[in-house]
Amino acid sequence: MKKLTDKITVRQFMRFVLVGLLNTAIGLGVTYILMGAFSVDYRLANAAGYGVGVINSFFWNKLWVFGSRNSGAVREFTIFIIIFVICYGLQYWLLTLSVGRLGVNRYLAQLLAMGFYTVVSFVLNRTVTFASGRRPGRMKKV
C-alpha cells in the first residue's frame, strides 16, 4: 500500500506542476493582452493575470490533480486562496532573505523560491484544501 500512495503522490505532484505551468501561461497571456491591446496599467494587468491564474489553478487542482468530490467548493476556494497568500508570502520572504542577506544570485534565488513555493503549496493543498473531498488512494481520471 505504501508504494501505491507514493505513486499517487508523485503523479499528483507532476499534475500540480503542469497546472502551475498552465497558470503561468494564462496569467502572462492575460497580463500581456491587457497591457498591449487595452493599455491597462502594468500593475493592474499583473493583478488581473494572477487573479485569472489562481481561479484556473483552483479548478484544475480540485478536479484533475486532487480529484476532490467535495461539494463545498466555496470553502475549498477560500482555503485555497489563504494557502496561496501564505505560500506567496513565504516564498517572497525566502527570496528577499536569499538575495539581501545571503547574497544568492537573484536569478537563482527566484528559482529556489519558486521551488519552495511549489512544494509547500502542493503539500498544504493536498493535506488541507482538498483532503476531505478525496477518496483515499484515488484520483479522478480526466
Q: Which key phrases capture this entry?
A:
142 residues; mainly alpha; 4 helices
Identify the overall geometry.
globular
Low-confidence stretches: 136-142
Q: What composes the largest sheet?
A: none
Rg over alpha carbons: 17 Å
Count of discrete alpha- or pi-helical segments spanning 4 or more residues = 4
Summed over residues and divided by their number, the pLDDT gives a mean of: 89
The number of distinct β-strands equals 0
Report how far apart the termini are. Answer: 23 Å
Helix content, binned percent: over 70%
As a percent range, the share of strand residues is under 5%
Order of helices and strands: HHHH
Structural class: mainly alpha
Question: Concise description?
Answer:
By secondary structure, the chain is an all-alpha fold. It is about 80% helix and about 0% strand.
Would you mind describing this structure in some detail?
Helix content is 80%, strand content 0%. With 142 residues, it is an all-alpha fold. Helix 3 packs antiparallel against helix 4 (106-129).
Structural topology:
Layout: H1 2-38, H2 42-65, H3 73-100, H4 106-129
